Amino acid sequence: QNFIEIKNQKTVTAVKLTEAGVIECLKMDLVLTDVLPDGLFCVVIFDIPENKRKLRELLRFFLKENCFIPFQKSVWISQFNMVKILEKIFAIWKINQWIKVYIVYEDAEQALLNFNE
Asked: How far is CA 61 from the centre of its chain?
């Protein structure tokens, strides 16, 4: 599936992950992510242009397959801490300009009160 690239040179054989290989490794990392503490969520917010509708649908499918649930059509939430991995995947896919990934507190007002105590 073209996940690695092998180049034979004079004295060594170089093996490196292709872009597809890197993405596959990152997808495997998604499975191993930690559950966030109670009240915290990983939130993906996106605004992909209309002329890239298929990309938007693929993103929704990808999020659904990786334990996200839709909060709105372009806002998805998960209880797993996937921020760093998703940011890497979205950068490789060159779609990060339309997507933001956050960790948010379910009750922001209560979080501020707790912070100020």
From this structure: 12
108 has pLDDT over 70: no
Amino acid at 15: V
pLDDT band, very low/low/confident/very high, at 111 (cuts 50, 70, 90): low
**Six token digits for residue 77:** 């939430």
**Cα 63 from Cα 86, distance rounded (Å):** 10
Owning domain of residue 104 = 34-116
Residue 36: HSE in the Cβ half-sphere, 13 Å Cα cutoff: 19
Instruction: Characterise 94 by phi-psi region: left (phi > 0), alpha (psi -120 to 50), beta (else).
Output: left
Q: Is residue 6 part of a domain?
A: no
Q: Does pLDDT of 109 surpass 80?
A: no
In a domain, 61, yes or no: yes
